[in-house]
Amino acid sequence: QQPVQSPQAVILREGEDAVINCSSSKALYSVHWYRQKHGEAPVFLMILLKGGEQKGHEKISASFNEKKQQSSLYLTASQLSYSGTYFCGTEYRGNTDKLIFGTGTRLQVFP
Amino acid sequence: DGGITQSPKYLFRKEGQNVTLSCEQNLNHDAMYWYRQDPGQGLRLIYYSQIVNDFQKGDIAEGYSVSREKKESFPLTVTSAQKNPTAFYLCASSVTAAGTGELFFGEGSRLTVL
User: Fold this and answer.
1) C-alpha–C-alpha distance, residues A97 and B33, integer Å
2) Predicted local distance difference test score (pLDDT) of residue A50
3) Residue A75 — pLDDT band, cuts 50, 70, 90?
4) CB B92 within 8 A of CB B32
């Protein structure tokens, strides 16, 4: 039931771009994105509610393709502060009272 | 400041002992959640509650119990029936129960079974 994230890990130099994908086998109502730094609580980035919707947060944006049941997180011109583990969380149609998280993508940005 | 407080931050217990993790929020949120985090497995939902005196099982509820006697409190008990309880436990809350809004997380409790 967990959504599948890919890749599992990404290593970047500052200024490089990355894409993190999240896909589900079940029909989605919404997709959430969170970032967790080591030893800290996850922090909310954004929610995508509609098919094809895109949102932005600093230089981080995301898309949600409802038909394909997937979402992608785009990190452009990465900064050192972007390092952490990114999780997508999904709400399924007909069961929107809980959030199911993916296994996470670990992102490391080096100078 | 409003937020979610989890305690204790670190906890050690012997096999066969029950332990209760505390979660308190002063955000006036209706919904509260417990997640377990293990390396490589992400966050897995244990229990959630949308309203006082009501809660539902998540994906991995076996060996755990909860209560929701007050809106601001959602303690989790890890019982001796939980086969592999060593993990990082995160409590979260959201404004509404009718569809999940943004989740606000506590700092977590790390449980180690000796």
Assistant:
1) 10
2) 65
3) very high
4) yes
Q: Answer yes or no: do B99 and A96 touch at CB < 8 A.
A: yes
Q: Do B59 and A100 touch (CB under 8 A)?
A: yes
Cβ B33–A96 below 8 Å, yes or no?
Answer: no
Nearest C-alpha of chain B: how many angstroms from A52?
19
Is residue B78 over pLDDT 90? yes
Pairing of strands B42-51, B104-105: unpaired
Q: In this structure, what token pair is assigned to residue A80?
A: 């050192």
- Closest partner residue to A96 (CB to CB) among B33, B42, B100 is B100
Q: Which residue has the tokens 């149609």?
A: A93
Pairwise CA distance, residues B35 & B18, whole Å: 18
Q: Please determine, for residue B104, whether its predicted confidence score (pLDDT) is greater than 90.
A: yes
- The CB-side HSE value for B90 (13 A sphere, CA atoms) comes to 22
DSSP states along B30-82: SEEEEEEEETTTEEEEEEEEEETTEEEE-TT-TTEEE--SBTTB--EEE-TT-
